[in-house]
Structures
1.
Amino acid sequence: MAELQENLIDWLRDAHAMEQQAEQMLKAQASRIEHYPKLKARIEQHLQETLGQQRLLEGCLARHDTKGSVAKDLMGKVMAFGQAAGGAVNSDEIVKGAIAGYVFENLEIATYTTLRAAALAVGDTETVRVCDEILPQERAMAEWLLDHLPELTDDFLARDVTPGVEAKR
Ligand code: MG
Ligand code: FE
């Protein structure tokens, strides 16, 4: 039982670190987007959801009598995604960023699916509930990004072929 709970706590910390990375990535993307207001608005909406998810995870960690501050640094695990998203050197930054966002949302979906199973095994029904609250937000964001990739690509290409118009962000 102690081992089960240790795994659960580790994965709660991992999820919290992942959401901190998500916050950085979403903030960076939203601040750079200039010509794609629909994507920018959706990212800003998900940024607010992400901050709420951090609070929910902190609540779960606190109930397990661990530090809510989550001092353990696990940023490196998901750093690669941040780097992909911060690809300001790419002339197709907006498209690459949306693809990286879609990949990241799917990482989150898999992470919360794992966390939910671990919480169920320990009998932590509150963490199960939290996962059930967060998962639809991640699925909705992943779905939105995938659904809007064709439109975003079309908009990018139309801007790219127009002289004097910036397409990259
Ligand atoms: Mg999230
Ligand atoms: Fe997310």
2.
Amino acid sequence: MEHSFIDEERLQSLLDKKVTGSTEVKEILAKAETLVGLSVEEAAVLLNIDNEEDKNLLFETALKVKQKIYGNRMVLFAPLYVSNYCSNNCLYCGFRMDNKEMERRCLTIDEVKDEVRLILEQGHKRILMLMGEHPARSSFDYFLETIDAAYSVRDSKGSSIRRINVEIAPLSPEEFKKIATKKIGTYTVFQETYHRATYDKMHPSGKKKDFLWRLLVMDRALENGLHDVGIGALFGLYNWKFETLALLQHAEHLMSKYSIGPHTISIPRIEYAKNAPCAENVPHPVSDDDFMKIVAVLRCSVPYTGIILSTRESPQMRDKLIDLGVSQMSAGSRTDPGGYSADDSARDHGQFSLNDTRSTGEVIKSIIKHGYIPSFCTGCYRRGRVGKDFMDMAKPGLIKLHCQPNALLTLKEYLVDYADEETRKLGEALIEKELQEIPDEARKDATVKNLEKIEKGERDIYF
Ligand code: SAM
Ligand code: SF4
């Protein structure tokens, strides 16, 4: 009989785990800096920090950990929604079946290609493909076709999508075996809430009612041919400390059973969505301050994991969270099927409202100004550095040797092919500066040569 690996009682008992004094916090943070990760108990102490001094120390440590593992690159991607039909009724989502005002749409294969072309023209190389769960209107086989279609598109520069990540409803073992043949990157599903009673309340009907089917989805994925999985919780449904600790328990479970932790953790906060009662009236709102703690504690606790932020957050918040450990973010997003092709005034069927509506170009400029390298790298996945191999490199901080130069090479491509004049100047200056930071001389020389090749027209070079 399948059962939950979430120990609710233990997590509840940790929610007010009091800090016994700053020494304990300092010891835990010193441990985090060595990149070994933290236990659920240690993370609970950090989540309960209640004074400025310890909080600042936590934030500084999170940044150090991120820099040690990934350097200062920020991976960018664009979401692509192919269908908003859904037979579930999640109380927080605009796609829910009972939202009769939503205009429903499932893109044709040609429409998918049009969307991908527009995403490519923004400079993106990595997409996250999503849809609602409606086997009759947007079947699993249809979704497989959209993956092939998306990979087949070339834009005016001859560029194509290099990595497709997927976020669709939990699959069966047979479906995982099929999708594993499609060269997808990470497969992601958010548990929404790990709190059983809240989960049952939030999902009154449809297949998503089944808590365990969703909770064990990554076990099925890893047992049936996938290597990189992404987890997440929708913050605002239940106590934020409980969800953060449960995410860590999920990571521990995967690590101990498969030696593969989550490749990414996503931390969406509920945004307003029309006709979705729990998005119009969020049951457990998470303040900006607490949200920053969530990011910093996750970064210290599972240092090898990518932390993903979406355009649900405002530009100001996104800037703050970059410094606390976020390593991937979406840019220029549309959350409605056909949204990239549509005239802005005609769009009203997004899944939820966005707080960062800047174009990809604007996001890139601001990341560079912030001193980070916008990266379109897809090197790991294409070189086969996935699953346990990736974890083995990421844990001791070795992945940076690839991330940093690859970020520079993909930024260079962006600057030559898509950037405006101001961004080009800012970007070239950043590349010059960052080249000096590559510790290995041979890697630095190879990077300089590859940058020259890109300037001359070669593309898609990576370590
Ligand atoms: N239908 C699939 C599913 O539920 O797993 C695919 C993903 S759904 C399109 C993407 C995610 O959006 C959901 O897992 C949920 O966490 C998030 N989401 C739904 N409503 C939201 C809202 N109002 N604000 C922020 N995120 C929301
Ligand atoms: Fe459907 Fe997913 Fe939205 Fe739930 S979260 S209503 S399953 S699209």
3.
Amino acid sequence: MSQKSDFGLIGLAVMGQNLVLNVESRGFQVSVYNRTTSVTDEFVAKHPGKKLVGTKTLEEFVQSLALPRKIHIMVKSTAVKDTDRDAVDAVIEQLIPLLDQGDIVIDGGNSFYQTTERRDAYLAEKGLRFIGAGVSGGEEGARKGPSIMPGGPASTWEVMKPIFESIAAKVDGEPCVIHIGPGGAGHYVKMIHNGIEYGDMQLICEAYNIFKHAGFTTDEMAAIFNEWNEGDLLSYLIQISGKALEQKDPETGKPVVELIVDKAGQKGTGQWTLMNAAENAVVISTINAAVEARILSSQKKQRVAASTQLTGPDGTVNAADKADLVKKVHDALYASKIVSYAQGLDLIRSTGEKKGWNLDLGRIAAIWRGGCIIRARFLNRITDAYRTNPTLANLMLDPFFKDVLSKTQQNWREVVSLATLSGLPVPAFSASLGYYDSYRAARLPANLLQAQRDFFGAHTYERTDKPEGQMFHTEWPEVIG
Ligand code: 2AM
């Protein structure tokens, strides 16, 4: 092929390969480079007749691309602080001397957003353009159409738009990609997307656990999830949960799910979300509960030891009417999920305002409707909510969601109570409910808290009967001992 390529990709692991095949399938010629050359050779040989240009050196790779070059890096990112250096930095350093002004470097890995901000500033100094793009959808999404969350200057987005829009998933004809905002905004939104994903997964697991302890078989549970996937809860995660529960182990004939050890892994984006929420003083208690549930699950040895020492109900859920329980758990899950999204979006809004990113929450929810792991029917409702009211203070206050929370809450409360009285942990269900009840409380017990603070530290307090901002202190009695 003598013509220069439209797009280049570095890093031919599965995600990279699939993304290349996706881009190529939309009519673009793609150059590829991988540190280990044999991987490149095998990849190109495996796809004869496709518009692929395999290159053996970075020089050859760069020379094969049309200007301005569009180079997508898909190598393993490991940096967890803005000062950490990883493979993405190594590749960038090798590229810099080979590039021309205005060339575009895209990091499509799961990079920490502050690292992205550092790289953005560094490359801008050198006259190069950088895009930190969150790409969600796993291997299948990369091949067939992911949800893409690109950050960086709007002018760079305009250059990348035709390629990104053609490779992204489509919902109702709309591509699941928008320009999120400048700098690290794209990777930031991807990070929160992952936090929300943690919340969704944990909520589904809590529903499953209640059914399991109420005596449902795995096939019955699979049928419930499959049915839920026809309604308000329609989503990729509900769908795969149903399919996972149906799966039988060929060796034993048992459900595979019941053979899997109950120790959850995590790669860190959930923890990043938590740390970011703490830094910004935003409550994301459902996501927090989900991350902590994974941590506690991983402490299997301690839990097994404690199970014979710490007393309590054994977790058996007594449900006389199974159909009634299914309806109640459905409502608890739906309500909790709304709260979880309200929290995640509140964090995005808060950070976006501080950073001056000018984020559009409705359009962000819209690009999560397809391609990504949290794709779900109810994201349409979130898009509508922000389209109607772009300054919505909290998703729960949107008329549609307010109504759902009102209608589901009796069942939600009953499920949390039932599980609690049965000794069955529902940390994410109850965190959501606690948030809902705190957010709607006109008066919280923080008056006593302020008294305590003033008592031991003379921190002062405001009074209900005096103007806001006027501070008071009481001479509290001395406490002996
Ligand atoms: P490799 O095949 O040569 O190992 C996922 O690990 C992808 O990132 C692989 O394509 C891998 O290349 C690439 N990768 C990891 N570290 C790298 C580095 N320091 N420089 C270039 N590519 C790297």
